[in-house]
């Protein structure tokens, strides 16, 4: 069952394919420059001619560089830029789930009720938020023009990761509040993410791991990556914590750091001044996964930690809970739905998909896995370089602390991007943690699932993604 609103899906950073118009007049969709699929990611990073290796113009701010790059569509499967954010599963599962509920991209002869919104994720979230209105508002008018139940249609945004920042800017700063009914964010870094700070300070240099190109200048030229910087005080400073604008952050543009902080504070001020921001927003956050939360700056490098002193708030493995909870809410806010899952898989998680359906229809959907009461905390490397094995470490919450209960039978499964099982192993115990080791995996982007090994297991599975780099560039 559908609502009568226009549903718009926004992916996270790197989650939209990019292309350029050809000299022969061919569309951008025929000349893709960012569309890695399965094991093809390294082809874009080893040729030296990809536009993704070229820095954006200095001082680009909230403008487009005029380089002919256009967003084309949402990434259908696993995608990653090593050293820039984290591997993400694609958006096909989410889009197909919405279509199964009756939303239509082509409209079947009528106006579309579902728009997968692709955007140039290199650019400022302010730019993409402004552009969002030029796509959404005409589509909403077409839907309303059908009359009847659609006459009062509004927009519902479903946003993964950075897509939530784009939608928030449109809603609060570009007039979108008037046409928006609901904002659903999945793992959005409302207050930023420590990973972005570590990546910008330390760089993504040639010769690190498999890279034969230097992505440092490219990453440090992206306004969007700066706008993922933590707004909260996360940098160790004496006996306390400082914000990025209160200390000298090495190796990066001070002006871009300051502008990113203004981006966050402007949004927070607008939301605080509009009470409806709270009633329209649904926060879905990943929890219980080891997540980098704070940073120590030393000798020109950033060193991350999962804790604030003795406190560990965890998160989704990429965005800590501190960064994921917005609207000035405390970490135990009732505005947030908490799902034990990794950032890479929130938009594909079955419980999350059920939650989205409930929000859209305002009708209860029976939750899956209600009896699965054991939660996994997993650490899966983003990248496995040649000559190294994939090591997946994890703990079960029911086995942490207190008297040691009987250990549950567990398994770790590695699947290709197409779903083929590549390997499955039972973990061993090392240093008090469970570890599964996989050697000789084929190169490619793979899905890693940590789950109970027995039928009827009460363990909630956790899914993540890793890239196994080829021995030689292909």
TrEMBL record:
Pfam families hit by this protein: LCAT
Superkingdom per UniProt: Bacteria
Transmembrane portions of the chain: none
Name listed for the protein in its UniProt record: Esterase/lipase family protein
Highest classification ranks of the organism: Bacteria, Bacillati, Actinomycetota, Actinomycetes, Micrococcales
């Amino acid at each position: 069952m559908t609502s009568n609103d226009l549903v718009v899906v926004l992916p996270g950073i790197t989650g939209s394919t990019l292309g350029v118009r050809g000299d022969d007049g061919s569309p951008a969709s025929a000349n893709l420059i960012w569309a890695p699929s399965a094991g093809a990611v390294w082809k874009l990073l080893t040729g030296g001619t990809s536009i993704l290796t070229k820095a954006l113009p200095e001082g680009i701010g909230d403008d487009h560089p005029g380089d002919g790059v256009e967003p084309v569509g949402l990434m259908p499967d696993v995608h990653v830029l090593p050293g820039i954010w984290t591997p993400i599963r694609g958006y096909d599962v989410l889009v197909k789930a919405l279509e199964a509920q009756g939303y239509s991209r082509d409209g079947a002869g009528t106006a579309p009720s579902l728009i997968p919104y692709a955007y140039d994720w290199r650019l400022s979230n302010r730019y993409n938020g402004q552009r969002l209105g030029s796509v959404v508002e005409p589509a909403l008018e077409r839907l309303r023009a059908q009359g009847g139940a659609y006459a009062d249609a509004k927009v519902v945004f479903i946003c993964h990761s950075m897509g939530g920042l784009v939608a928030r800017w449109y809603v609060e700063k570009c007039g979108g509040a008037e046409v928006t009914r609901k904002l659903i964010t999945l793992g959005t870094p409302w207050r930023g993410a420590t990973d972005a700070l570590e990546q910008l300070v330390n760089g993504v240099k040639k010769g690190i791991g498999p890279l034969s190109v230097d992505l440092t200048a490219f990453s440090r030229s992206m306004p969007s990556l700066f706008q993922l910087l933590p707004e909260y005080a996360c940098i160790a400073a004496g006996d306390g914590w400082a914000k990025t604008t209160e200390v000298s952050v090495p190796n990066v543009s001070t002006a871009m750091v300051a502008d990113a902080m203004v981006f966050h504070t402007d949004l927070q001020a607008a939301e605080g001044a509009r009470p409806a921001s709270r009633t329209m927003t649904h926060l879905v956050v990943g929890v219980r996964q080891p997540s980098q939360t704070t940073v120590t700056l030393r000798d020109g490098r950033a060193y991350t930690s999962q804790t604030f002193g003795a406190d560990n708030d965890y998160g989704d493995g990429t965005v800590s809970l501190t960064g994921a909870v917005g609207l000035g809410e405390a970490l135990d806010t009732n505005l947030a739905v908490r799902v034990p899952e990794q950032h890479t898989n929130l938009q594909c998680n079955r419980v999350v998909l059920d939650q989205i359906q409930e929000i859209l229809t305002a009708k209860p959907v029976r939750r899956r896995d209600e009896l699965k009461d054991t939660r996994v905390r997993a650490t899966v490397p983003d990248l496995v370089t040649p000559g190294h094995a994939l090591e997946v470490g994890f703990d079960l919450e029911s086995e942490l602390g207190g008297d040691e209960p009987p250990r549950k039978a567990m398994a770790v499964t590695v699947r290709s991007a197409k779903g083929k099982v590549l390997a499955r192993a039972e973990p061993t115990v090392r240093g008090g943690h469970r570890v599964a080791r996989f050697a000789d995996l084929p190169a490619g982007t793979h899905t890693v699932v940590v789950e109970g090994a027995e039928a009827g297991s009460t363990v909630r599975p956790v899914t993540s993604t890793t890239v196994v780099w080829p021995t030689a560039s292909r």
